[in-house]
Amino acid sequence: MTAKQVTDEFSVAEQITADDVDVLAAAGYKTIICNRPDGEAVGQPPVYEIQGAAEDHGMIFRHIPVVSGQLSMQDIAEFTAALDECPAPVLAFCRTGTRSIQLWGLVKGLKGMPPKDIVERGAELGYDLRGVAGWLAQQQQE
């Protein structure tokens, strides 16, 4: 598991395990957000195991499952609430980190971060967020 630091208060990662939570807690993370539906793939650790490990460390855990390629306004609203309500630093994960950083970009863009900055930050971390920028531009036109 490799956490990619997006900002001082937010990081993304690929799928984590309950054992990874020990490392995340030691690194100072306060909140974990899972953006992967439970049982999405064979061999994927069940959400309850990761949630239990997080809670054992006194961490906040939120499960906001997003089906790949099907982000919704509800997903964005739930992710926004989690970032607004939960203590930082936050680690969000899914299979590869893409859904999690897309949600971050959408939330930041809706709060006024320039899409160009979102795309650049994503590219620095190996994620293509041009689709996020396009969606944000479309929202501004409506």
UniProtKB/TrEMBL annotation:
All residue ranges annotated as the Beta-lactamase hydrolase-like protein phosphatase-like domain in the record: 4-108
SUPFAM superfamilies: (Phosphotyrosine protein) phosphatases II
One Gene Ontology molecular-function label: hydrolase activity
Protein name as catalogued: Beta-lactamase hydrolase-like protein phosphatase-like domain-containing protein
Signal peptide (UniProt feature, chain positions): none
Membrane-spanning segments: none
Biological classification of the source: unclassified sequences, metagenomes, ecological metagenomes
